[in-house]
Amino acid sequence: MSTAKRDMREVMRDEMIMRDRIVAILQEGSKTVPEVSEALGAPEYETVYWMMAMRRYGMVEEIGRPDIDGYFKYEFREQEEESHE
Q1: What are phi and psi of 65, to 5 degrees?
Q2: Which of 23, 35, 61, 62 has a CA between 20 and 30 Å from the CA of residue 79?
Q3: What percent of the chain has a predicted confidence (pLDDT) above 70?
């Protein structure tokens, strides 16, 4: 893997593709950002960006307390459908 950081515009373009991959990874069980990053084969700074976007929209949430290294585990949250009465 290259050590050069990609431009954030490139990282942002990959968000929708990576969202589906992250969901699949988290459906196997809760994981920390480094664990998700490793499973994706992506740099942690990119994984943080994608997961925090998902957190903002309620797709993932941290659970429990941080581990000894300060990382929270995250889990996928099923989206509730809005009722239109």
Answers
A1: -105, 160
A2: 35
A3: 89
Q: Are 63 and 73 in contact, with CB atoms under 8 Å apart?
A: yes
Q: What's the full length of the chain, in residues?
A: 85
Gyration radius of the chain over CA positions: 14
Domains of the chain: 18-63 (1.10.10)
User: How many other CB atoms are there within 10 angstroms of residue 39's CB atom?
Assistant: 16
Using DSSP's 3-state secondary structure scheme, residue 74 falls into strand
Distance CA 22, CA 37 (A): 9
| 6-37 pLDDT tens trace | 888 888 888 888 999 999 999 999 999 999 99
Look up residue 77 and give its two tokens: 């949250």
